[in-house]
Amino acid sequence: MVDSLISTESSQVVLQHNTKKETPLTVLDICTGAGGEALGLEMAGFIHEAVVEIDSVACQTLRLNRPSWHVIESDLREVNGLDFREIDLLAGGVPCPPFTIAGKQLGANDERDLFPEALRIIEEAKPTAVMLENVPGFATAKFTVYRNDLILKLHRLGYEIQWRVLNSSAYDVPQLRPRFVLVAMQPSYFEHFRWPQPKRICLTVSQAIGDLMGSRGWRGIDQWLHRANCIAPTLVGGSKKHGGPDLGPTRARKQWEALGVDGRGLADFPPEEDFPITEDSPLRENLYPYRGYDLRSQDTPQFVTDNYDKILVERHVMSDPNLPGTVLRLPAVYGPGDSQHRLFPYVKRMNDNRPAILLDDGLAQWHWTHGYVENIAAAIALAVTNEQATGRIYNIGELYTPTWAERVSKIGQVAEWKGRVVIVPKDRLPAHLVADINTEQDIVVDSTRIREDLGYKEIVPEDEALRRTIEWERAYPPKEIDPKQFDYAAEDAVLAKM
Fold first, then answer.
1. Equal CATH topology for 6-190 and 325-496
2. How far is CA 146 from the centre of its chain?
3. Domain range 6-190, CATH class
4. Which of 33, 44, 175, 407, CA to CA, is 20 to 30 A from 431?
5. CA distance 54 to 73
6. Residues 6+ apart with CB under 8 A from 60
7. Please, is 243 exposed, middle or buried when counting C-beta atoms within 10 Å of its C-beta (0-12, 13-18, 19+)?
């Protein structure tokens, strides 16, 4: 950005003083978050005098990724700029909700507005240069008075100022992310400042991370590369004032869907070879009786799962030339009439006004595709009445499979529960909450085939499906409820130690 002010002959950006001595540029980064901007400044050669962030989880991330950084976990209002006198750069993205539509655009009347604190620290620290970024809404006419007041105050502190709205997609970040960027410098340096030139050809999502997505041999990589050969919608962090982390507003979900991306969560690793499970994925080789159980009594609901193997049934149906068969592979089906009462343990705790629902850390991140009973019935009816389904195998299930923690949180949202989901290490959970399942293997199925072949789509939206299921679970709880499975005293004891 600066011509003649910096040199990149070495691995660090250096400030050219009147002497020949080269000194690394220093920066105080405020409102750092998890460190995206701070990392960019590091890549540009800046040395961090400190990074300031109030969120404890974000600070843990910063300390983990950059142990050498001086991380100040504090409200910006408590930071003394005199401790950073004459640093080269003060940079940061003060909270944007005061200037967003979602944040009600309250501006100076929003308690989250930290521009005044940034100005105070600038006055105290007297940095050579300042870079502040915010949402493009800050550049609109609505905030002209506020913006001009900010610029006037910076002028009075002795700075020359320019601002622009830049879009990250023009600078090799494949995301539709316009940002208001303000640059202020002491006059003797400002004449050398140049804005970066935008690229004529934008990098796409598949170009940027295609090699990573295919690094574990994912068979669906070619199809995904085609779908993701475009710019992604804006990735946002959410707001604690409006429900916490959220990777994107509802209107962006369709855009993420078009890219083949689940916009509701983050994966720990790239997809494996057979992720998600398609109709052509290899089936398990351990056949009946594969569950390792002794056959249970015919009076128990689980008897049917002990006494047959779905793969053997599929083979028989599909190998008979005289039988116009279709195989439908169903997900975990929930809704009114669910004999397993899959949602009941959570609905009961919500009805009992529990302050928290505890999940072990493995289960919390686990994925298992579900489907609402009426949607599954619609898929079955579609397959039965459509000749094109003859001889075909179809997966059925929700379009996106959330983590278990996300699923429970969604149930709570629809149930208007005021509590929270708390993730706990498995060895610290009460015994009754330890999940007796292998959460190392996600069960995520791809239902693209039935959607494309037969035009299947859900007839009941997710929120309505959950609402109906919650009402049914409340009205028709299991006939026998084991009190040991709702040992709230044990759960409270775990919460008290956290």
1. yes
2. 32
3. alpha beta
4. 407
5. 5
6. none
7. exposed
Confirm if 382 and 456 have CB atoms less than 8 A apart.
yes
Please name which of 346, 486, 358, 348 lies closest in space to residue 428, comparing C-alpha atoms: 358
**Which pLDDT does position 307 carry in this prediction?**
67
**Collapsed DSSP state (helix, strand, coil) of residue 144:** helix
Percent of the chain surpassing pLDDT 70: 85
Q: Are 213 and 240 in contact (CB under 8 A)?
A: no
CA dihedral defined by 464, 263, 365, 444, rounded to 10 degrees? 80
Question: Exposure pattern of 475-496 as b/e (b: 16+ CB <10 Å)?
Answer: eeeeeeeeeeeeeeebbeebee
Structure tokens at 62: 């910063």
Instruction: Parse the chain into domains and list their residue ranges.
Output: 6-190, 204-264, 325-496
CA 263 to each of CA 56, 235, 386, 395, 421: distance values in angstroms, whole numbers, following the listed order: 24, 9, 32, 22, 20
Report d(CA 484, CA 474) in Å as an integer: 19
Homologous superfamily, domain 325-496: NAD(P)-binding Rossmann-like Domain (3.40.50.720)
Are residues 408 and 466 in contact, defined by beta-carbon separation less than 8 angstroms? no
Considering 31, 96, 202, 230, which one is annotated as catalytic? 96
Output the pLDDT for position 111: 53
pLDDT in tens, 384-432: 999 999 999 999 999 888 889 989 999 999 999 999 999 898 889 999 9
Under 8 Å between Cβ of 262 and 398: no
| Tokens 């997966």 -> residue | 395
Task: Say if CB 373 and CB 337 are below 8 A apart.
Answer: yes
Residue type, 487: D
Told to judge if 202 belongs to the known catalytic residues of this protein, a careful annotator would answer no
Q: Are 118 and 132 in contact (CB under 8 A)?
A: yes
* C-alpha distances in Å from residue 258, one per residue of 226, 230, 361, 453: 11, 10, 30, 18
Asked if residues 456 and 447 have their Cβ atoms less than 8 Å apart, the reply is yes
C-alpha to C-alpha distance for 307 and 283, rounded to whole angstroms:
19
State both tokens at 140. 């609109």
Give the predicted TM-score (pTM) of the model.
Answer: 0.62
